[in-house]
Amino acid sequence: xxxxxxxxxxxxxxxxxxxxxxxxxxxxxxxxxxxxxxxxxxxxxxxxxxxxxxxxxxxxxxxxxxxxxxxxxxxxxxxxxxxxxxxxxxxxxxxxxxxxxxxxxxxxxxxxxxxxxxxxxxxxxxxxxxxxxxxxxxxxxxxxxxxxxxxxxxxxxxxxxxxxxxxxxxxxxxxxxxxxxxxxxxxxxxxxxxxxxxxxxxxxxxxxxxxxxxxxxxxxxxxxxxxxxxxxxxxxxxxxxxxxxxxxxxxxxxxxxxxxxxxxxxxxxxxxxxxxxxxxxxxxxxxxxxxxxxxxxxxxxxxxxxxxxxxxxxxxxxxxxxxxxxxxx
Amino acid sequence: xxxxxxxxxxxxxxxxxxxxxxxxxxxxxxxxxxxxxxxxxxxxxxxxxxxxxxxxxxxxxxxxxxxxxxxxxxxxxxxxxxxxxxxxxxxxxxxxxxxxxxxxxxxxxxxxxxxxxxxxxxxxxxxxxxxxxxxxxxxxxxxxxxxxxxxxxxxxxxxxxxxxxxxxxxxxxxxxxxxxxxxxxxxxxxxxxxxxxxxxxxxxxxxxxxxxxxxxxxxxxxxxxxxxxxxxxxxxxxxxxxxxxxxxxxxxxxxxxxxxxxxxxxxxxxxxxxxxxxxxxxxxxxxxxxxxxxxxxxxxxxxxxxxxxxxxxxxxxxxxxxxxxxxxxxxxxxxxxxxxxxxxxxxxxxxxxxxxxxxxxxxxxxxxxxxxxxxxxxxxxxxxxxxxxxxxxxxxxxxxxxxxxxxxxxxxxxxxxxxxxxxxxxxxxxxxxxxxxxxxxxxxxxxxxxxxxxxxxxxxxxxxxxxxxxxxxxxxxxxxxxxxxxxxxxxxxxxxxxxxxxxxxxxxxxxxxxxxxxxxxxxxxxxxxxxxxxxxxxxxxxxxxxxxxxxxxxxxxxxxxxxxxxxxxxxxxxxxxxxxxxxxxxxxxxxxxxxxxxxxxxxxxxxxxxxxxxxxxxxxxxxxxxxxxxxxxxxxxxxxxxxxxxxxxxxxxxxxxxxxxxxxxxxxxxxxxxxxxxxx
Lengths: 329, 680
Prior knowledge:
The complex is a heterodimer of chains A (about 325) and B (about 675).
Chain A: H1 2-28, H2 34-44, H3 51-61, H4 67-79, H5 93-128, H6 133-147, H7 150-165, H8 184-193, H9 195-221, H10 224-231, H11 236-242, H12 244-248, H13 250-254, H14 256-265, H15 268-274, H16 279-289, H17 292-320, H18 322-328
Helix pairs in contact in A: 1-17, 5-6, 5-9, 5-14, 6-9, 7-9, 7-15, 14-17, 15-16, 16-17, 17-18
Chain B: H1 6-25, H2 27-41, E1 49-51, H3 65-72, H4 79-83, E2 88-91, E3 102-107, H5 113-120, E4 127-129, E5 136-138, E6 143-147, E7 152-156, H6 171-182, E8 196-197, E9 200-201, E10 203-208, E11 211-215, H7 223-228, H8 249-252, H9 262-271, H10 277-284, E12 299-303, E13 309-314, E14 320-322, E15 333-338, H11 342-350, E16 356-357, H12 366-371, E17 378-382, E18 388-394, H13 402-408, H14 411-419, H15 423-430, E19 436-437, H16 453-456, H17 463-475, E20 494-500, H18 507-518, E21 524-530, H19 532-540, E22 546-549, H20 577-584, H21 595-606, H22 612-629, E23 632-637, E24 645-649, E25 652-653, E26 677-678
Parallel strand pairs in B: 2-14, 3-15, 20-21, 20-22
Antiparallel strand pairs in B: 1-2, 4-5, 6-7, 7-11, 8-9, 10-11, 12-13, 13-15, 16-24, 17-24, 18-22, 18-23, 19-23, 25-26
């Protein structure tokens, strides 16, 4: 068991390194660099930046050096906990991401909780009562939820919110509390703004999870041990919840690997549409402006979270499901 | 590009879909708009006036209540002392206002710094335009005096005027900027064209505490306009690029290697996590980013642009006053909230969450704005520009395909293409009929406008003439689908137009319409939308064929020539990168232009050293050549597409019914937002 975890951890470390190289390379792929996009910005506002000024800027930002030198410099900083300076925001990357990270987590976690709170019971219900009216309704709504892109839903809710409820457009805070220090009033304000993004973000996931739960549970319900349990005369509730549901939960444990980065990045488009101050829009803007340290750090962060998530789910699976443990040793 | 970020495309079209849904519901409003609603939305050009006659200046001053409190508490000197002996007096448009309140608007992130400069910097130019955008008047400078036949200019500063931290604003701030910032190669690698005449650099010297002399080797009659325009001498907006003409010496010296030891400076750089003193210095001299920077503007940054809310508050040492002696601004605070995308910004404006907004407001949503006027308690105004909202640049240096390059350099080819555009259709579809179709020349009232006949020159729809011209120059053969064939026998003549998405004008969509229109003259156009950096790279590599853009600013021909002839070194749409290089290197690099273009460039350059009357004549001739040769196709102009749709709360006072709209006027800066006030 320990050897297994150790091996996995080593592999994870290697993967993180590979991700750092990849994320750095990806950011370098588009034509130009931050200075070109800065010049473009200036040009579109009507002022010209001379070749010499551009050259000087590249020098200041260290953009003139060969790629591997830039990479090594970046790594060298990161190892010491300095993620560099965001070129566009002109603030340390950590500060720029930091303030948005917690809001992102708040939005995504509430979406996740909503997803599970809805999906698990509905999934169980439609498996146990397969082909009942309730199952059909749940399936129907589920497929609609899957089919409607959530940004479209966001737009519709935004517009309806404005037309019928005169709600604040976008954002996670009322304008008055935007800059207020954290306190009871601000948290309450945040909680009031959370349901809509959480609902929008959670809906597609919910549909998917319902389907997965239903399919898994249907597989299990037909197995002989369920028949045995039933024939022993256990009450139906115990039969379903105690054994098949637990087994059917397996795939959920294995998806934690994707869930962690989803918490940070899953809301990009919806955040953009709803104007939420989360990491998503920041990443998009950083990529457009070719703000490489900021974009690189976010991409790296997502990579590390995927790896960490996978590691956790590996360990979790081994722990929940003795069968995996046996196969592995 | 579209392949690279497919989902942004889908997102954009989805956003468009939803809002066009809203648009449909407002179709009635649109109908009303088309029938004379236009006239009621575009009002009379008006604005506040600067009182230059010192005899009419108020003798006693009043201040905002919270500042009076501070004076009472002994934390601030009395108001008269803060303003000094020579206030900058502004006669408000309608009425003397009342103190208090906040101005709410939106911004789109740290790259949107023009937003704040335009609204809140005063403007802090030494000289500035009157509200017509035509006449140059003293602004921060008390007066400007020409000496030595235009080779020297005396700037008289206002006595007792102060920076926002209470330290005096004097000639030393100019000398410091010139000697230690401008001439420092690390801070300013290339000397500015604004500080030079005919390529020869000028100098700044101190005469006395309140007098500065700008000296040039040759006559520089354009100098007042250069100080007034959005040039490199335009005040603290360019501080972050180490330009501006002056800088707070007493504050910035602590970050300059000439005044502090290397070790001490190094420590400061490290403490603030910068890589070099240059970046630290530029960050400290950034009006939008550094709340500690002493400023001269009516409002100053308190929470910087790189946070979710960019907040500005009144500057207690503001030198701006109204005719009754009230220190300006009237409004206490300006709060710009971050909008993660333009649709959110527009929806917030529609919902009435902004008090005054014009930047990023989308003309395409005009009907929705009008529909919600009552609900949002605001009024919509249109501020058409004096320039062209859509131009198409031929890259005269295009050489990747010699055949196409040859046609671009054939005047009749360019003219025929211009005649093949149905400008009315474009105007109706994208400007809702609010703009004027025509050539590149500025509005008729502009002093450099060569005459009304040039508006229509080569700029009407005439398919027969266009087809005849194309036939005659050697493009008579067509393929089965009716498209013209190349003269070199290599199949169909295909040309490409490069556009950018997400701008004030919908370049891509309009180009698609032109593509359809050009089918009728047998021209096969390919529309390619690219992202900004790629556009820049393509123009720099001379890979662009046609480029769509607008020529805003070009109505100030001499301070803003980027879209008149190949002038720009880095551009998102170019009409000839080699010509631009030739022009800037005085003929030592790049490629020599054809005679007519050369004539245009020479006339433009000559105008800087001649008196105004002669300059106006030269300006007219520049525009004449531009219109005759059609180096750039003018499509639709004098419309409100670029920041010309203004959404203002009904109870905000001193709002002009129409204002001069241009980057040079820092609109709404030209209407002196320091005089805006809440009526109740």
